[in-house]
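explain this:
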Amino acid sequence: MTTTEAGATASSEQTDCGEHVTHGYHKQKGEHLKRLRRIEGQIRGLQRMVDEDTYCIDILTQVSASTKALQSFALQLLEEHLRHCVADAALKGGDEIDAKVDEATKAIGRLLRT
């Protein structure tokens, strides 16, 4: 893990060769964390609503907003994965591109089932 200028920690992995591989979302990591904290606040709000015996429809409205926020985050992350990881694999060619496209296709399938 490395620290960016903004003080956020960038996620990276080492390959078998010891090279550092940076994930597609690393440039937006701070923004993503901020967004996830807002979503976390929405979920805490849901807990509070249930604890306070809030009207069902009002809770469902908040569930819908939270779900939409998570779906939007997932789509952004998927786009970054396609632009970074899949595009990089396409440049390398061979089996790696097939593996990355298969991985992305499965991720899209999981998103569509939710």
About this structure: Residues 1-19 have pLDDT under 50 and may be disordered. The chain has one domain: 2-113. Strands lie at 2-3, 9-10, 12-14, 20-22. The first helix runs from residue 29 to 51.
